[in-house]
Design goal:
single chain, 81 residues, alpha+beta, two-stranded parallel sheet, 52% helix, 12% strand
Length: 81
C-alpha cells in the first residue's frame, strides 16, 4: 500500500522521481515504521488536497495527520497536544 501511495505522490510531483528514489523512500519508511506509528503531523497548506497521497501514506503508517489551510486556522490546543 505504501508503494502505491508513494507512486501517487510522485505523479503529482514537479520533480522527476526515479525508481531508485522510490525504492530508497520505501526502504526508509520500512525502517522508520515503528518510530512513525503514533506520531503526529500538522500539515499546513493552502491546498492540502494536492498532498492527499502523502497524507494518506503517513496515516497508513499509523500517524495522525491534521490539516489546516493557514497558520491562522491552527488553534492553540493542537500545539499543546
Amino acid at each position: 500500500m505504501a508503494g502505491q501511495l508513494l507512486e501517487q505522490a510522485a505523479e503529482h510531483s514537479d520533480s522527476p522521481v526515479t525508481p531508485t528514489m522510490r525504492r530508497g523512500a520505501l526502504s526508509r519508511l520500512e525502517h522508520a515504521a515503528d518510530t512513525l506509528k503514533g506520531g503526529r503531523v500538522l500539515w499546513i497548506d493552502d491546498h492540502p488536497e494536492h498532498n492527499g497521497s502523502l497524507i494518506s501514506l503517513f496515516r497508513s503508517m499509523g500517524m495522525v495527520v491534521d490539516t489546516a489551510r493557514s497558520t491562522a486556522e491552527v488553534t492553540q490546543p493542537w500545539a499543546g497536544g
